[in-house]
Amino acid sequence: MVKVEKVNIMDIEFVNTTKETLLTKHLFPILLNQQKCFIVTANPEIVMKAQEDQNYKQTVQQAHYIVPDGIGIIYAAKYLGTPLTERIAGFDLVLDLLKFANEKKLNVYFLGARDEVNQKATKKVKEKYPDINIVGAHHGFFDLEDSTVVESVKDANPDLILVALGFPKQEEWICKYMDDFEKGLFIGVGGSFDVLAGEVKRAPDIWIKLNLEWFYRLIKQPFRIKRIVKVFQFMFKV
Ligand code: UDP
């Protein structure tokens, strides 16, 4: 694996590079060479969870690439005097990986979200990226110990495995089972299937440019207030 510069925030080592470089120099070659890789797209809530739970911290630390998702991480890095090049939103990474998978006709597995959301998301992906080989899909409401799910993923021989179980479950699932696989790029993608399915709208570009995506999500989903409180706790701790 090609080396990448890192920035440490509370024991979590974030990759310090642009999305473009991460994709072209790292992730695309990994996919083409059929290597194995684990990516965490970490926001302040994930860093806080890792602070509070040693097991989860160790799980996240197993990742080959920890990507700074969330503007709070960018502000924290700047404040600590080790600025990060840019925020890399998990959802943007998902779209670029799907585009590449379409160009190269790769095998993709969709694991996670509610059953109807999962089906809707894969249907939309099929329409938009017809050359992707969707080798399997499974909803995300199963027990972590349930090995039938991992067996079905393995049998499908995927190149790219999108794991949308929310944190910490998605990282725990990847960490627990990745050794059983010969190849595959595993990435925890949180609520991305809900957006792909059209169930949740992403903030308009102008909000994203102004670094206010978090605020847009809060207005649309006020129950997320608890998570925003975590972000402020994180900033305070930094
Ligand atoms: N989810 C799941 N299994 C679970 C818990 C959650 O598949 O046991 C799904 C949930 O349906 C949603 C996603 O995981 O699609 C989590 O979305 P959220 O917006 O909370 O994640 P974030 O992007 O903020 O990490």
Can you describe what's shown?
The chain is an alpha/beta fold. Helices cover about 50% and strands about 15% of the residues. It has twelve helices and eight strands. It has helices at about 20-30, 45-50, 55-60, 70-80, 90-105, 115-130, 145-155, 170-175, 190-195, 205-210, 215-220, 225-235; strands spanning about 5-10, 10-15, 35-40, 65-70, 105-110, 135-140, 160-165, 185-190. The longest helix is centred in the first third of the chain and has 14 residues, at about 20-30. The chain binds uridine-5'-diphosphate (UDP).
Mean pLDDT: 95
Radius of gyration: 17 Å
Instruction: Describe the largest sheet.
Output: 6 strands, parallel
Overall body shape: globular
- The SSE order reads EEHEHHEHHEHEHEHEHHHH
Question: Which structural class matches the secondary elements?
Answer: alpha/beta
For the secondary structure, the number of strands is 8
Low-pLDDT regions? none
Summed up:
This protein is an alpha/beta fold. Helices cover 49% and strands 17% of the residues. The chain contains twelve helices and eight strands.
Annotation keywords:
binds uridine-5'-diphosphate; six-stranded parallel β-sheet; alpha/beta; 12 helices; 238 residues
Describe the secondary structure blueprint for this structure.
Blueprint: E1 6-9, E2 12-15, H1 19-32, E3 36-42, H2 44-52, H3 54-61, E4 65-68, H4 71-79, H5 90-103, E5 107-112, H6 115-128, E6 133-138, H7 147-155, E7 160-164, H8 169-177, E8 184-188, H9 192-196, H10 205-209, H11 213-220, H12 225-237
Parallel strand pairs: 3-4, 3-8, 5-6, 5-7, 7-8
Antiparallel strand pairs: 1-2
Helix pairs in contact: 1-5, 2-3, 2-12
Uridine-5'-diphosphate binds next to helix 9.
